[in-house]
Design brief:
1 helix, elongated, two-stranded antiparallel sheet
Amino acid sequence: MSLINCPHCKHKVSEDAIKCPNCNKPVPVLSDRSCNDCGERLPKRKRKCPNCGSDNTNNNNKQKTNNMASNNNNQFL
């Protein structure tokens, strides 16, 4: 069990919590995806990072593009 920040009041909350014990608002269910910029775990069905505000629309595509660029560079070594 790890702790996350409540997106409403920033109080530390268990990632398994349904609602924040401090502000009583719902805590989003987190996905296995992480923000491209800050590494914070992203809520399911959300593209914007609640921590840094980064748009993670192309989260998977960005990783694939980076891998392809690395593979292409190795061809010429």
